[in-house]
Amino acid sequence: MAVPVEGETIQIHSYKHNGRIHRVWQETMVLKGTKNIVIGANERTLVTESDGRTWLTREPSICYFHAEHWFNIICMLRSDGVYYYCNISSPFVFDNHALKYIDYDLDVKVFPDMSYTLLDEDEYEQHRKEMAYPEVIDKILKRNVDKLISWIHQRRGPFAPDFITAWTSRYQLLREIHAQE
C-alpha cells in the first residue's frame, strides 16, 4: 500500500457503505504518513458533498486517521478551544493521492472540556437497514464507539494534552517551508 508523504497535499474521500461518494475534502497537508497512521491539517479547504454542494471549512483542523481503528478524529481549532468531531468509520486506505474511508453515520462530538455527545444514532439505524450492514460490522462499529469514548476518558491519541500543540507547530513549520519554495 502506498503511504502519503509528509508535506504532500492529498484529498480525503468519504464513502457510504453502498460505495457511493459521501464527501470530498479538496486539500489536506500530510503531517505524518505511515501505513497505520495519517495525521493531516487543513484550513479553509473546499468540501464537496455528494449532491454537488460545496462549502469551505471554517477553522484550522488537525485530522487523525488510523488503519486499524474504526474511527477518525477531526480536531477543530476554535478561538474558545479545541472541538473534536469523531466519525465512526472504516479504517482508512490510501490510494491515488487520496485517503479513503467509509463513513458509518455515528459521530461523537467532543467539547473543549472533554464532555461529549453521541450523534446521528437515528441516521445510523436508517442506513444500517437500507444498506444492510452485516451484523459483524454493526458489532465492530458499536465496539469502536466504546473504544473512542475510552480514549476520550484516558486522553489518548488526539485527546492527549500535547497532541494539538505538537501537530499545529508541525503544520506551521511545513507551511513556512512550502511558502519559501
From TrEMBL:
Mg(2+) 1 binds at N87, D103, D107. It comes from Caryophanon tenue. Keywords: Hydrolase, Magnesium, Metal-binding. Its cofactor is Mg(2+). GO terms for molecular function: magnesium ion binding; nucleoside diphosphate phosphatase activity; ribonucleoside triphosphate phosphatase activity. This is Nucleoside triphosphate/diphosphate phosphatase. Mg(2+) 2 binds at D105, D107, D120, E123. NCBIfam families: PRK13662.1. The active site is at R23 (proton donor). It catalyses: a ribonucleoside 5'-triphosphate + H2O = a ribonucleoside 5'-diphosphate + phosphate + H(+); a ribonucleoside 5'-diphosphate + H2O = a ribonucleoside 5'-phosphate + phosphate + H(+). InterPro entries: DUF402, FomD-like_sf, Ntdp-like, SA1684. Has nucleoside phosphatase activity towards nucleoside triphosphates and nucleoside diphosphates. Residues 18-156 form the DUF402 domain. Belongs to the Ntdp family. Its EC number is 3.6.1.15, 3.6.1.6. The keyword Lipoprotein does not apply.
